[in-house]
Each structure stands twice: as structure tokens, then as C-alpha cells.
Amino acid sequence: MLYSKEIIMKQQVPFIVFDGMDGSGKGTQMRLLEERSQKEQRKIVFTREPGGVPLAEELRTVFKSPLGMQADALTQFLLMWAARNEWMKKFVIPQVTNGFVVCTDRSDSSTLAYQVYAKEAHELEDEFWRMRRLVFAKHEPSLYVILDVPAETARERSLADSTHTSDFDVAPLGWYESVRTGFQAFVKGLPDKVVVIDGTRIPLQIHEEIYSIIARHCGW
Fold this sequence. Notes:
By secondary structure, the chain is an alpha/beta fold. It has helices at about 5-10, 25-40, 55-65, 65-70, 75-95, 110-120, 125-135, 150-160, 175-190, 205-220; strands at about 15-20, 45-50, 100-105, 145-150, 195-200. Residues about 1-10 have low confidence and may be disordered.
């Protein structure tokens, strides 16, 4: 695990991203956090990327369609940022302004991993950081929680999960390795904002570690 005490104790209204490869256990950890937060009546809202608001959900549908999945890296890249900009303006900024912690399933970290690294579109990497500054501006995420597992583990889990039906799940091992490299590049780009969690352990053990980090970051 890697983290900065300054990030965990940040005092602004938190905007937290959960991310990781398909098969990393990210979805399970989001669900456990949401269930516990509801029981404890925390002032926190959960959302997802792409999606979260009507137009972004429509763009998500386009992205996940056969045409969207077959689109080249630049087309997918632009779709993600268009959806993200709408989501920021219509959901994230209003929620944070009203004092609610925002916790999202995926965000820009996935764009770097999937649309730049997995698509081998490294010419988009500088553009990624520029778009990130443009879209987030003064409201960028305060903390990223990234679940990390070996590529082999992620692929095995994805193939064994009957609820997963996307083309991503049946991708070759090299594709998973590229995605993981993309997340590692994101960590290097924002070392003071990212917590890397070992996702190979049992879910409840991971949850307790994540909840402790989130609670301290939110001042609970």
C-alpha cells in the first residue's frame, strides 16, 4: 500500500475515485463501502464513470455498443472526456458544493489505462494530462483508491465472473498487462493523490483497510 498522510487528512470536501482493472475487485469494494456508509449515515454519494447524469449515461451506452467498442483510441478518448465534463458540471460540482463526499466507480485513471495504454495510443498521453486540467480545473479528485492485482489474476477473475459480458473480459493476457501498466503510469503521474491497494487478499480484509483510509480522508 502507498499513501500520503497529507492526502488522507485533506480537509476539502473529498472527491474520491475507485479504480482498477476488470477483475481487481473494485466493484466489490465499492459495494461494501456504500453499504457501510449507508448504515453509518455518512454524507456521501456514489456515482460512476462514464455515466452519473442523463447525457453521460447516453454516452456510456454508445461507448459500450459494438460500434463504440470497435472505435479507435481517439474516438473513445473523446467520448470519455465529453461524458466526464457533463458529469462534473451536472453532478460532482453541485454535490461537493453542497458538502457531500463524492465517491465514483472509475474516472480519468481508467481513461489513461484503457484508452491510452491498452489501445497503445501513447501519442494521447500528453493530451490526457491537458484534458484532465481542462475538465477538472479546480475540482479534481482529492484521492484515488486503485485496486491492484497481477494481470493473470484479473483475467482469471473476469473470465470466471458470469455477470461480465464485455469484450474487455475475454481480451488476451497482454491486454490486461497493458492496462495495469497504464494504471502504474497514472500512479507515477500523481503520486501524492493515489493509494494503491493489494487486491489479492480476501475482500473483507481489503475493505477494512480501505474504510480506514476513506474515514481518515473524510474526517469521520
